[in-house]
Design brief:
The protein is mainly alpha-helical and 82 residues long. Helix content is 84%, strand content 0%. α1 packs antiparallel against α2 and α2 packs antiparallel against α3.
């Protein structure tokens, strides 16, 4: 389980670094990977309080992923907001 949590941490770190560098598509891939790993981890979490914390992390990461998506679309000239 520890490697799973460290993998999540590494994917989020890489996603953030890529977003800061303007590599939005790569960032989205790493965020999606981290989100999938969290979903797998949630299956193993029995404690309701810990599960709720992980669900909050998931919601926050979904927001980050959406923001990166917006930047990606703006960078490519796509008009997703209208």
């Amino acid at each position: 389980m520890t490697s799973s949590l460290s993998d999540i941490q590494e994917n989020v770190k890489t996603a953030r670094e890529n977003a800061l560098l303007g590599s939005y598509d790569t960032s989205q891939v790493y965020y999606q990977g981290a989100l999938q790993q969290i979903q797998k981890h949630l299956i193993t979490v029995a404690d309701p309080a810990r599960k709720q914390k992980w669900q909050q992390v998931t919601a926050s990461m979904l927001l980050h992923t959406y923001i990166v998506y917006i930047y990606s679309a703006q960078n490519s000239g796509s008009d997703i907001l209208h």
